[in-house]
Design a protein that fits this description.
10 helices, 2 domains, 9 strands, Alpha/beta knot, elongated, single chain, Trp Operon Repressor, Chain A, 5-stranded parallel sheet, alpha/beta
Length: 234
């Protein structure tokens, strides 16, 4: 899988791939990372990429030409590219999207800066548009890294143990049960005794109960979804 980051600030992104799981994925040729800077396509004298907003309003907007030409060029040389724009004005990015997008061969993430991107570029090039949450970041770079990371771990071979994918939160509406490691007692807190007895069916039921408690506390709407799904299965 190839990821192309279309960004004015590649240096904000590069460091993330210099260690840990995604670095190993690059070393194993499972993922490839490219960068494309719209500034290099700017036809203006000073390689300008932003301009004032038409119709008024605070701040600058990424004006169409540099990004338009950058994306046209990218599409011409990559037939099957899937172009994703990052913006708060979009559907939320979810685990199901990460799994679905992991099957693509080439994804480009387009990061906005300033007050965002001229809408005509989005209309022309977006295959999909995603928000990573209900808050405003200074730019799309972090958002595209979040997506790239979540997608990459669903690509075969990227995780050492692919079993971990199937038991994680959001595989079902329930959040994952709490995890524990050794030692059994630490700072006067103990691992739940049932976890230690080796009865796997009882451990499973306890984990399910704990999972439901966590979900009820943090994400009650997800618990409702879980219960509705269960009642349909009956
Ligand atoms: N004026 C825009 C608005 O109110 O919707 C916010 C622009 S934001 C300061 C600049 C860029 O950061 C956006 O173009 C987008 O690429 C990125 N961005 C900010 N928040 C985001 C979010 N929650 N999800 C995805 N991208 C985001």
């Amino acid at each position: 899988m190839t990821f192309t980051f279309v960004t004015l600030f590649a240096n904000l992104i590069e460091g993330y791939f210099q260690d840990s799981i995604l670095k190993r994925a690059i070393d194993k040729n499972l993922i490839h990372i490219n960068y494309l800077n719209p500034r290099e396509f700017s036809g203006s004298k000073h390689s300008k990429v932003d301009d004032t907003a038409v119709g008024g309003g605070a701040g600058m907007v990424m004006y169409p030409q540099p990004l338009y030409d950058a994306l046209k060029n990218l599409k011409l040389s990559n037939e099957n590219i899937h172009i994703v724009f990052l913006t708060p004005v979009a559907k939320p990015f979810r685990q199901n999207d990460a799994k679905r997008l992991a099957k693509k061969s080439h994804i480009a993430f387009v990061s906005g800066r300033y007050e965002g991107i001229d809408e005509r570029v989005v209309e022309e090039f977006a295959d999909e548009v995603f928000s990573i949450g209900d808050y405003i970041l200074t730019g799309g770079e972090l958002a595209s890294l979040v997506m790239c990371d979540a997608i990459s771990r669903n690509i075969e071979g990227v995780l050492g143990n692919s079993d971990s994918l199937s038991v994680e939160s959001f595989e079902t509406p329930l959040l994952e049960a709490p995890s524990f490691s050794k030692p059994q007692n630490y700072e006067q807190r103990s691992v739940p005794s049932e976890y230690l007895k080796g009865n796997h069916s009882r451990i499973r039921s306890l984990k399910l109960a704990l999972s439901e408690c966590k979900t009820k506390f943090f994400r009650p709407e997800q618990l409702l979804k879980h219960r509705t799904r269960k009642s349909y299965e009956k």
